[in-house]
Amino acid sequence: MSDVKLKKGESVDKALRRLKKKLDREGTLREVRARRSYEKPSDRKKRKAKEPKINYWGNFSL
């Protein structure tokens, strides 16, 4: 569960922006959008094969 606490003197818009960034980094929104509709297992395998992989040192490989 992600949460963002308002800092002293911070506007709600800035706090909302920080929450959106945090959710994006954690991949929460992506997961929610993916679960909205059913995805066949074969389509899931194809999508995961296309996603870039991150190796031990943090580099991407396609």
Q: Sketch the topology as an H/E string, one letter per element.
A: HHHEE
Helix content: 40-55%
Tell the overall outline. flat
The parts where pLDDT drops under 50 for at least 5 residues are none
Write the layout of secondary structure elements.
Elements: H1 12-26, H2 28-34, H3 41-50, E1 53-54, E2 60-61
Antiparallel strand pairs: 1-2
Structural write-up:
By secondary structure, this protein is mainly alpha-helical. It is 52% helix and 6% strand. It contains three helices and two strands, in the order αααββ. The protein has helices at residues 12-26, 28-34, 41-50, and strands spanning 53-54, 60-61. The protein has a two-stranded antiparallel sheet. The model has no long low-confidence stretch (mean pLDDT 85).
